[in-house]
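User: Assemble these into one structure.

Assistant: Restating your components, then the assembled model:
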Amino acid sequence: MEFDLRTPRHDAMVDITAEVSRFVAVSSIRNGLVVVFCPHTTAAITINENADPDVVHDMLAQFNQMVPWRQPFFDHGEGNSAAHVKSSMIGAGEVIPLVDGKMALGTWQGIYFCEFDGPRSRRVRVTILPEGA
Amino acid sequence: MEFDLRTPRHDAMVDITAEVSRFVAVSSIRNGLVVVFCPHTTAAITINENADPDVVHDMLAQFNQMVPWRQPFFDHGEGNSAAHVKSSMIGAGEVIPLVDGKMALGTWQGIYFCEFDGPRSRRVRVTILPEGA
Amino acid sequence: MEFDLRTPRHDAMVDITAEVSRFVAVSSIRNGLVVVFCPHTTAAITINENADPDVVHDMLAQFNQMVPWRQPFFDHGEGNSAAHVKSSMIGAGEVIPLVDGKMALGTWQGIYFCEFDGPRSRRVRVTILPEGA
């Protein structure tokens, strides 16, 4: 199962919790695992606070301080090596426990698509696996 | 399956390998995957060396150098944006192969609950999934 | 299922997509999840671009700037704390959706074994789990 999204800016964290929840709601699996996967190398998936938007602002600013867009030692011709670094630092996917038909996210947790070289059209894949006995 | 822990300091890596192993021991699944998930946005789960405690000291010190607690560009009113950044850098969960009833961790690997804004009461969820044929 | 590799240098990203694909090809599971796990504490698994080798160069250089090999606050006697930090930053494993018998990697995605304290002999474990109905 896949869905598409359009990221709004060069750097962005887009809350995709509702989209993922829609796939979970139509699955017959009630307990197991939900895997959210990003098939792009300049983007990532993470889980973090979905209450105060300042958290997302601060996270993107901190990532940019740690991984500057320009570095004297970057050779890659496309000029987006910083986005590749952030993609591997944050990671291409997240696994979320599925309990009684709902993702067992914490109170403040949301699932984010992290864009590091946008704006672009992007894709997200959701896989649901059943728990054992 | 869940368990609670109390983290001891503001920054800490608490070895939870024994707690996770207890859930694995009572499961009827012998081969598959063990997923350890942290439902908090200022903490994380990682796998790293469990032999020399200096490794944990050095890791926490390096995280603090990369992500300072105070930054002029942090807006979040709670003042713990650094903890949110570290949570996404390290990640909310780990997946560990389950082989013949035991987690297939390497010789020096232990599972750690990473606290970045403690001390606090925290929760960890363990999910076990069966391997296919 | 496991395979061994020899890493070529102190810092390296070795493309292991072909090795993992070989395990996928002989599995009877057509849809589900492929988990690639690194049982070492100074190495990691990541997914990133497999087209331009400059990307790997730039990523390793950026990791080394963020996490210097020597730090005045490193206590660990082995002297490889930087490798432990990078291992937890990048992560011990990756989960990849399996769709119709093939890993659903994006066009530019490859699976990399990241060596941060080599050259060494290393091991990788591949676990394949079936999707639910």
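The longest strand of chain B covers residues 121-130.
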